[in-house]
Fold each of these.
Amino acid sequence: MKKEFISIILLILCFLLQSTLLSRFTMGGIVPNLMIVMIATIGFLLGNRTGMWFGFVFGLITDIFFGQIIGLYACIYMFMGYLNGAFEKILFPHDIKLPLLLIVCTDFVYSNICYILFFLLKGRFDYLYYLRGIILPELIYTTVLACIIYPFVHFIFEKIDIFDAKHMGETYIEEQ
Amino acid sequence: MSPIVKKKREHYVLPTKYWLLILTLLCVVTMVISFSTDIFAKPLNTISGYVVVPFQKGLTGVGSYILNRTENFKNLQFVMEENEELKKQIEELTKENIELGQDKYELTKLRELYELDKEYEEYTKIGARIIARDTGNWYSNFIIDKGSEDGVQVDCNIIAGNGLVGRVVSVGPNYAKVTSIISDNVNTSAMVLATGDILLVTGDLEMMSKNLITFSRLYDDNDRVSIGDKIVTSNISDKYLPGLLVGYVSNVSTDSNNLTKSGTLIPAVDFKHLEEVLVIMELKENIE
């Protein structure tokens, strides 16, 4: 429960940062996608169930504030959390390379879904422009931030595990 | 208690994939509903307005503070490097300079707002501050810190600098969501001020990086429209008040159908550095 609680706080923080501070500190007019990093990280570390729920809830918040249609971002974020959670049992969280690759893939897929849904369906076929102008810069900026955020979240969760393991013994015996 | 009794108490947990299916269906249903009606807008806006907006206000304040501080610092360092021998004097002067500079910046901004106020005098307006921007890179919507409690309604026009920014698309109690005319999914009916020809202004992400907006469907048989002409919102627009400045024509070309013309225009507003805006309280449908 502690991990979920901290995840919620981190996600709220990320959402607020994303919509306020980060849009002022852009690089070439591009905002990194903190929400995707956090949801991918949480999905990967806490499993598909948690990833799915957090993705859904925070997608919904994004929808309310910035979406044209309620439910679209909720759906995309939910699948991102769920699919990242599927790797929980397969990959080692200690090695940063693979989770990082996962986050990068998630952001790339997310950007492409956005392109297809918002632009391709409207008849904007110049994919290379959007790839070079928006998708790749966002990917690079997001990756840099993921290099900081993922180890940070992983570090906190590890501390919680150690803390729980210490206290688990006492309470467990008391309940018995 | 024996373990068997405990086991009976454990309730059945629905597997995650079924939850995924249920939530996906829920999303699809809400998408369809919100696409056709706006049932969700009111309650959701109210809740999120009270929970999230105060934080966004605070953080935006912190952001401007930091940005201002870093800018001040940069100025200070630059001047000090140039005039090392006059350090003391210059320190005093720079301090004064910065303070005056900030005052002047504020003064020019207020003057601009005042002039704009005079230009569109017949409308009642309130000032608002932008407190949050779209989280993605695809659209340019933003949130302002005035809402229904201040009298802002859906479709209120937003102006800044000396031209049109966009309009309110949804309202919470203490905030309002604004979609700008440069957003890729927005069309604005406008006209050429000099000739009165109607045209359609469309936001375009590709053009936005060059600080341009596209326009199309301009009927101009006699080639009277030229580069630099003022484009204002048209009389026939059902959302925008007539006569608000949109921008200046920067490029015109005849379409392949030989009937209409299209091209690009330079917006009158600097969308990248937007901080304060004015909300026009009158709605188009109420004015006549």
Amino acid sequence: MNYILYLLFVTVLPVLIGCLTVSDGDGKPYTVISRWCAGFVSMLALTYIPAAACIFFHRSLTDLIVVLTLVYAAAGAAGAVKLVKNRENPVKSFFTMIRTGNLFELLAFVLPAIHAAVTFFMMHVDDDDVAYVGAVTTSVDTNTLMKYDAVNGRLITDFAVNEMDRLTASPQFAFYAYVSKVFSIRPAVLCHTFFPPVLTMLFFAAFLLVGRELYPEDRKKSGLFSVFAFLISISSYFSVYTAGTFILVRSWQGKAQIVGLILPLIFVLAMRVIRRGASLPVDTLYGFVLLGAASLLTSMGAVLACLELGVLFVVASFMRKDRMILVRMLPAYILPAVMLIIYFVVL
Amino acid sequence: MDKAFSIITRTIARVYPTGFYLYYTIAAIAFILARRKRRREDTLLGLYSVVMFCLILMPFFTLLIWRFLRNGGVYWRVLWLIPYSILIAFAAVELIFKPKKSALKVLTAGVITAAVLLGGTNVYRGGAFQKTTCREKLPQITMTTMSVINENAEKTGNPYKSLCAPVDIFCQIRQVDATILQYGSRQFRLEDLDESWFHEYYYMVMYGLTKDHKGLITRFMLHNNMNYIVFPKKYSLMKTLLYSKCQKLYDQDGWQIWYYPTVPPGDYAYDFNS
């Protein structure tokens, strides 16, 4: 039963929350996928302030679970109300998308699904997990947040030791600890077995959305684009430092989610704005959740996301000769600014 | 300036050590920008990539980001800002759909697919994934260590568990059980050793680089309140541990786990009853 609830948490709830973050209408192709990606990113962004506050005020994991449950429930309910108000049916849209699909889109689903199965049944051991998964296990086993060092279990007196400052400034472990505790799945099992398949599908859904923005009228081309993105990723093992290697092999780590989900979705946002010629408040909101999610995932990743968004929108405002395109994106930088203050000033 | 160029070249060599993907990426950017019929989205993608390449190759920018990072060793992630998957995939689709005849489209697709697959290294053949025996996706010895330690803690009534382990188990044990404490930090490298030769000797023993003839390992465990030790049998620590009246808990599959009952709990141990 826990696993079914977990599946609903990572599929249905993000679709509901995503209705608040993206402006796709029901009739556009890939709307459900767009909302799923946006919703997952929104959940990460919504986690940031409660997690940072609970860590700062030395609250327990139980307190964080209560707060996050209320936040996610409220966001999900608001998304559901919006769906009902607009008389949209995401289930119907999803099956319409499947029914009207083509061979390339089928491949764009099947190939990542095969890799998702590989991540479910096989293992990749990474030493960096001593901190990342160790922090989740420490939180779950001790019901605390950043009180004990993830690596050796001692009381934290100096956050710079074992890079606990990075985990505190970007508390992705808090999200995993929440899911682990609420759905009673052990942290190592969650991170290594149950999240990787979901994340794999999310990453290649993000590539499909990039394809949609590049080919809005041609689903064959966007499907083929996603297929090539997959083939390029699986051929990227010439170095353990490539983006393709990270998203396929270490998907549960924050860095992989930055490069596989956040950075491509920033492209989606920028292309949408350049085509429209103006940025709307919902675009600012989407930028805000993207950078907010990046701040949660990893401190260096937040810097990358900010750089990418900044350069894209500087180029876009130059191309459209409209500086408001850039100015309207400035509020998106609020959460990264909070993260930087925590990292450089507080810790 | 020299430092900046050194950082840039090392970074590129780290992320693109072999294969053709760096050249594919540059070719894709050139292809996108050289086309006469371009949409705004294509131009944005191409211009962004050029601007980002220039920024990354600019010494001022390199040094700024390098100094901004406390640990400059992660600078290579800046190359992720060049979206090589998106660029190459986009160029591939455009090239495939350029010819009018279907046969030519199929031929182009075949050539490009071969170039993509052969120009890199396949993740499924590079040893990235192994078979697993548990859902935690960790080696069996880690799970066994956790079980043996917890069984012994229950049997003896002593909830204090602090483990002395080789580096791979060190990185894994607290992923499965955070009530097992450890000595040391993530910077578990010989280059980062404490000045004390005692610590150096401990790390060398646990890396298997030298035999512990002097029995220092048990003195080290006592000094740092570590009451469990796991190691590959080939380390030959049995004499030392028996001399210190340690108890063998496990001896199978080339591994041993021992318990040192006289070690008192460390003052940093958290209250297991709270």
